[in-house]
Amino acid sequence: MNVMVTDPVQQGADDGRISDEVILKVDNISLSFGGVKAIQNVSFDVKRGEVRAIIGPNGAGKTSMLNCINGFYHPQQGTITYKGTARKQMKPHIAATQGIARTFQNVALFRGMSTLDNIMSGRTLKMKANLFWQMLRTGPAENEEIEHRKFVEKIIDFLEIQDIRRTPVGRLPYGLQKRVELGRALTMEPTLLLLDEPMAGMNLEEKRDMSRFIIDANEQLGTTVALIEHDMGVVMDLSDRVLVLDHGQMIADGTPDEVQANQAVIDAYLGVAHE
Amino acid sequence: MFYREVGDLKTTYRSDQQVLTITQERYAIFALLAFMYAVVPFIADDFWLNTVIIPALIFSLAALGLNILVGYAGLISLGTGGFMGVGAYACYKLTTIFPDVNIVFHILASGFFAAAVGVLFGLPSLRIKGFYLAVATLASQFFLEWAFGRIAWLYNYNDSGAIDAVNRSLGGFALTEPYGDTKFQYLVTLTIVVFLTLIAINILRGRFGRSWMAIRDMDIAAELIGIRLLPSKLLAFAISSYYCGVAGAMLVFLSLGSAEVESFDILNASFPVLFMVIIGGLGSIIGSFLGAGFIVVLPIIISTVPRFFEIDINSATVEHFRFMIVGALIIFFLIVEPAGLARLWQITREKLRLWPFPN
Ligand SMILES: Nc1ncnc2c1ncn2[C@@H]1O[C@H](COP(=O)(O)OP(=O)(O)O)[C@@H](O)[C@H]1O
Ligand SMILES: [Mg+2]
Predict the structure, then answer these.
(1) B149-161, pLDDT tens digit by residue?
(2) Bigger pLDDT: B351 or B283?
(3) What pTM did the predictor assign?
(4) What is the domain range of residue A177?
(5) ipTM
(6) Which of A264, B250, B257, B284 is found 20 to 30 A from B239 (Cα to Cα)?
(7) Could you tell me if A3 and A85 lie in one domain?
(8) What gap in Å lies between CA B239 and CA A134, rounded to an integer?
């Protein structure tokens, strides 16, 4: 079951990464599309510094939950409190300005752009030089481009994708695309990183690399992570707490060990074909 | 082989981010510019300058403008002719109201009027995309054509109902068509085009260019990294229309001399410029030039090649052939190679970049 090569006690144990501050609190969220109830009365929270997993069978409402958190979907009921501010709705670009970054279940990269440009685009919000300087490409425009390039190169080194810098991402294999997408999200220096099945469709080796990047982002960069993942081994190793959804309802919430022992979870999820 | 990247290492991000990172390419562009400035005026006669080179340069600018919108920001427009017309009529009004202000200044200023109109007609782009946006911009085209033909104030109540020739000079020399010297018009056209192309390159490789491409490729993800769709799209419309407007003004004052509504209608402006972009290459600056050159030169080739083989060909046949060839190429490029002529250049370039290593 274990796919991790990292020290097995490292995650899960409270090693001072996790603060008591609740950075995200979801209260009684309900979301439906016509007759389809995607999410029904779900509540949970995420503490600053932790890795929070959301699991559940296909169609359980996991992606919809992330979409509510960063403003793509507007739940009909309930509130979401992020960094102390409660709200019913928010716009995606505002979520971005407040430090929420995201990757998608089906890679959502900018296919016509190179790896470098994709990751550079993650710095958009931090770039300020106005159109005048952009037209001349000197002074502030050039300086800030270089300054952000330096940061982007650190991310490129971190993700070990130096050799595909100039490659249009559309030509990259799937596993690398997922890595570039993580790079674009990390480049935003997010407070809260939402990952939607970051390891779907990857082989063992790729999963191991991706797990390492997520752990490093969490430990070294201090990023709070909420991730959806199907591979139970990965979930058990990476996450501090696990939320389990089924048919839009919350059926369990707790540490990996608690969740794994929960009968409702075993019935709904672990028992079925996923492992 | 002298053209290569291997061994041409960049040691700073500044040099790695230049417009042309490959040393040889930089020299090639300088050589081309030197050729355009110092050699072309002496080897090209007035016929070539008037019917091929100047129109090709002006349409390159319009194609570049449309390419910013279609190729980079992914927003389709059939209103190019209308935006070019706004530039032309604005320039005509400006230069008749302020005859003492230099015509080149007016040409550059007229683009701002086109930009404003472009933003106005770009507003629906937040809600609609693709086919529906094409129809909306087509509506703007019809509206503008109507305005150019019916609002007599725009053409100063001339009996001809059109923009008539005005005599304006630059630095003491007559410039505008038909009063100015063709070589002089060429040099001024070239300078404006080079200047505005440099600015476009700069904008496109900075954060605005990246934002447009991001919206083009995946608007949901673009929003998610903090790009606001409406302002970005409107900026694309503004800058694109600015370029089209300046091209329209140049077309009247540096090439045609006088102009009427037809000069800016769908068949004479909107479609040809769109074809230039598609054939040249969506999202490519070089492609805008290749496409414009191709579309402008094509009818001349069709009419001269048969004559070379002493086959009689009348002008109606030339038109038919032109439509057939352009039509076939559009279909070819749309289906097989959306990156257009520019892609052919790119493939060669990629091979050369790695030289001497194979692959
Ligand atoms: N945009 C949408 N329109 C209609 N139904 C949707 C939409 N997004 C999700 N759903 C529905 O909501 C339910 C939960 O979907 P999703 O959140 O994608 O599940 P998961 O990510 O857990 O597999 C599914 O029944 C799905 O069909
Ligand atoms: Mg999902």
Answers:
(1) 999 899 989 888 8
(2) B283
(3) 0.89
(4) 109-189
(5) 0.88
(6) B257
(7) yes
(8) 13
